[in-house]
Amino acid sequence: MSTAHLPRIGLVGAGIMGKPMGLNLLKAGYTLGVYARRPETATDLAHAGARLYPNPAALAAETELIITMVSDTPDVEAVLFGKDGIVLGAKSGLLVVDMSTISPVTTQTMAQRLATQGLRMLDAPVSGGEAGAIAGTLTIMVGGKAEDFAEALPVLTALGKTITLIGDHGAGQVVKACNNLIIAQTVIAVSEAFALAQASGVDLEKMRTALAGGFAGSKVMEVHAKRIIEDNYAPGFKAKLHDKDMRIAAQTIQSLDLNLPSSQLAIQYMHQLVEQGNGELDSSALAKIVQQLA
Amino acid sequence: MSTAHLPRIGLVGAGIMGKPMGLNLLKAGYTLGVYARRPETATDLAHAGARLYPNPAALAAETELIITMVSDTPDVEAVLFGKDGIVLGAKSGLLVVDMSTISPVTTQTMAQRLATQGLRMLDAPVSGGEAGAIAGTLTIMVGGKAEDFAEALPVLTALGKTITLIGDHGAGQVVKACNNLIIAQTVIAVSEAFALAQASGVDLEKMRTALAGGFAGSKVMEVHAKRIIEDNYAPGFKAKLHDKDMRIAAQTIQSLDLNLPSSQLAIQYMHQLVEQGNGELDSSALAKIVQQLA
After folding, report:
1. In terms of domains, do B209 and B286 share one?
2. Chain A residues whose beta carbon lies within 8 Å of the beta carbon of residue B213
3. Is residue A4 included in any domain, yes or no?
4. ipTM of this model?
5. In chain B, what residues touch A222 (CB-CB under 8 Å)?
6. The domain containing residue B207 runs over which residues?
């Protein structure tokens, strides 16, 4: 594939997720420019052919589509609107694709603020973790305008497998919050069932096999339940990151004045897990909290 | 296939589940004897070749393997030990395969009581509902002795697909309780996520599609979530039956002195749903309770 006709893509963030995503963009033939707050994290990308930039503004000046993949809501705000931020360098019409997991409400505000400056935004958070980022099989949940989605789609195809335009600005982040809430609650449901089975002297792996194919079956039953049975919480998706996502979900639930008791329980358990010093474990270590309380 | 070498199977119960199971046994070539408390429910089975008996004792006298498929714990107790019960007619060594969903604790007591009379028992509750019973694709979770399981397996193969010996007496019922608890909690998790998405203006079917293939994916997300989105709760698995199973789960949790808050929430919601007069709906109508509280 000739790279001559593929546009220059910008990437802000070269962490656990950003780095493999950048490598996949290079592999797909895109010309890639990178800004990383800690430049040493971008070394592999530079060796693979990416050009490094000293700040987001400089990068934005030389691209039509810029991906942000940073830690939290304030990081995206800083990268966009802060010192040497994207808006200070961007050419009119730049499309910002924020793939971080951040607040849906703030996402809407940011998209509006960018629009007043002639810039466009999609929220496109992902699930699938580091393994999915490396394999280019991320699930990508997108919010924004259909024409912007169409423009970004070829680029996103280099990064993920299931790529869905959910709705307007923030909709991708809402679905990501729901994704995290459902996973945590399913882990808790399976963990409580294991506690009941164990107290009854039932072999957990036999139970897992019996249930996996039926209506109690889930990805959690396939993957996380094995970790729980083996008491092996090598991540996977670290509890401290899931906890960060759960705080965003909690804020969203609160801002909408909703009462969701099962979600609240999961948010509380995840926080407790991290408070106990288990933030580096896979988030399915939620089973530990269930076991402590049982 | 010649039926001459296949033993006579006894079946107690010709209800929603028992009737199609009996028809599958006849189809598989077994000679079938049936006792039904309400004989009119066994008409189809008689037409298909089953012989009807006036009481469980009379049926037990002419079979080596008898399946019980009745409503609740007291029904199994009555069929086994009550007036004209199985023990009064059984030849020594009779194998009772109880496929009802009942108390794991009582199951252990019953198996012991049968053993003192030279009779054998397996608990073999099923999931998959009426559709699974008709198709012969039930998931069957078995508790009891390995040699008894081996003896029953050819018969169970005519009724189900995934057939697992979990452990000793009661283990099948424990796993069935866990199955019901996990399903209900997953329905609640998905329903709360839908409430959050709806309040955020997100299209539920798009969200379902985006999440179904990822770590939030489950059989509930595939099947029940569609019912919730369409607000169409044609059963399926009726809430009143799920509620009955949840009461058994609650008793088991209590008898083991366990604290399982997420399970308790699901038990409470299911009861609330039935109390509101929705017992005939599919149990995924739990979403209604979530919506009322949200």
Report:
1. yes
2. 139, 161-162
3. no
4. 0.94
5. none
6. 174-293
Query: pLDDT per residue over B14-56, tens digit each?
Result: 999 999 999 999 999 999 999 999 999 999 999 999 999 999 9
Q: Let me know if residue A16 belongs to a domain.
A: yes
CATH number reported for the structural domain that contains residue B157 in this entry: 3.40.50.720
Please state the φ and ψ torsions of residue A229, each to the nearest 5 degrees. Answer: -60, -40
In a domain, A2, yes or no: no
CATH of the domain at B289: 1.10.1040.10
- If asked whether residues A88 and A39 sit together in one domain, one would say yes
Handedness of CA A195, A199, A204, A207 (dihedral sign): negative
CA distance B66 to chain A (A): 23
Q: Clarify whether residues B157 and B232 are in a common domain.
A: no
Residues B21 and B153 grouped into a single domain: yes
Asked whether the beta carbons of residue A260 and residue B183 sit closer than 8 angstroms, the reply is: no
Q: Are strands B160-167 and B138-143 parallel, antiparallel or unpaired?
A: parallel
The values of phi and psi at residue A194, to 5°, are -65, -40
Asked if A220's CB is within 8 angstroms of B219's CB, the reply is no
CA angle B251, B252, B256 (to 5 degrees): 115
Q: What is the pLDDT of residues A9-52, one digit of tens each?
A: 999 999 999 999 999 999 999 999 999 999 999 999 999 999 99
Domain co-membership, B53 together with B162:
yes
Q: Do A40 and A141 fall into the same domain?
A: yes
What are the chain A neighbours of B196 within 8 Å (beta carbons)? Answer: 174, 177-178, 181, 249, 252-253, 256, 258, 260, 263
pTM strictly above 0.95: no
What residues of B are labeled active site?
Answer: 176
Enumerate the β-bridge partners of residue A141.
A164
Query: Is A176 designated active site?
Result: yes
B32 and B99 inside one domain: yes
CA-to-CA dists, residue B231 to B226, B281, B285, angstroms:
8, 11, 8
CB-based burial, B195-205: b 16+ in 10 Å, e otherwise: bbbbbbebbbe
Q: Do A211 and B261 touch (CB under 8 A)?
A: no
Catalytic one among A176, A238, A244, A288?
A: A176
Are residues B213 and A139, on separate chains, in Cβ contact within 8 Å?
A: yes
